[in-house]
């Protein structure tokens, strides 16, 4: 078995190869392409127990990120393997033009995760001495304020999505989910494929969006390999 991490350009310069999951990785070169591989590692053995599996997942991601600091690449899913060296060679030969075109598209670019966490509305406390109709009206007003705030969040979320679409041709909206440790807070994710050199502009744009949309807390994570665009 030939465990495979990523495909990359076959560069004339040497690359610093990291340690893999269980051994040092190697480069398998085929014409204009190369593959980062770890020979003699069977993906099936990585599922023997949860600890080994988690360590392998982290190592897989680490290898891809370390190589991404040196060159553009096409990251492969955890557990990708080929039955033989010849099988991988034939695969690269058959898909040479497609992979080379993708690598040219990703040259000098990175994936940025724009994360939006919904801001909870701070409710004004209801006076403890309210009774009957007054108490009911106060509860009704509090409920309506929550509804209005949620509607405002949806309006701002749509505005942010439209702003991203207007600025970037390559972007993907991720799945929604609850914030860790806070089931009431909603998290939205947008993956943007942007140029790495002028990334300062993206951070400046983020600060503009944050000032315009107070119902969401917006953050931007470090540049990643193009996981969502391969």
UniProtKB/TrEMBL annotation:
Keywords: Gas vesicle. One of its GO terms (biological process) is gas vesicle organization. Signal peptide: none annotated. Belongs to the gas vesicle GvpF/GvpL family. It comes from Drouetiella hepatica Uher 2000/2452. The keyword Secreted does not apply. One of its GO terms (cellular component) is gas vesicle. InterPro entries: GvpL/GvpF. This is GvpL/GvpF family gas vesicle protein. It is found in: Gas vesicle.
């Amino acid at each position: 078995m030939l465990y495979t991490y990523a495909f990359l350009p076959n560069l004339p310069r040497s690359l610093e190869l990291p340690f893999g999951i269980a051994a040092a990785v190697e480069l398998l070169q085929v014409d204009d392409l190369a593959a980062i591989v770890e020979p003699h590692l069977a993906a099936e053995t990585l599922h023997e127990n949860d600890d080994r599996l988690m360590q392998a997942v982290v190592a897989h991601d680490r290898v891809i990120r370390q190589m991404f600091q040196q060159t553009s690449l096409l990251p492969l899913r955890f557990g990708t393997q080929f039955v033989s060296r010849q099988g991988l060679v034939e695969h690269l030969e058959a898909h040479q033009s497609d992979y080379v075109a993708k690598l040219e598209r990703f040259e000098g670019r990175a994936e940025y995760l724009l994360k939006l966490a919904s801001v909870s509305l701070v409710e004004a406390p209801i006076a403890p001495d309210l009774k009957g109709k007054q108490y009911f009206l106060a509860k009704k007003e509090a409920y309506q304020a929550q509804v209005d705030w949620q509607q405002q969040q949806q309006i701002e979320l749509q505005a942010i999505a439209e702003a991203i679409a207007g600025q970037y041709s390559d972007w993907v909206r991720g799945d929604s989910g609850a914030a860790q440790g806070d089931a009431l807070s909603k998290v939205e994710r947008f993956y943007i494929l942007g140029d790495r050199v002028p990334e300062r502009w993206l951070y400046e744009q983020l600060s503009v969006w944050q000032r315009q949309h107070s119902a969401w807390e917006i953050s931007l994570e470090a540049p990643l390999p193009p996981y969502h665009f391969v």
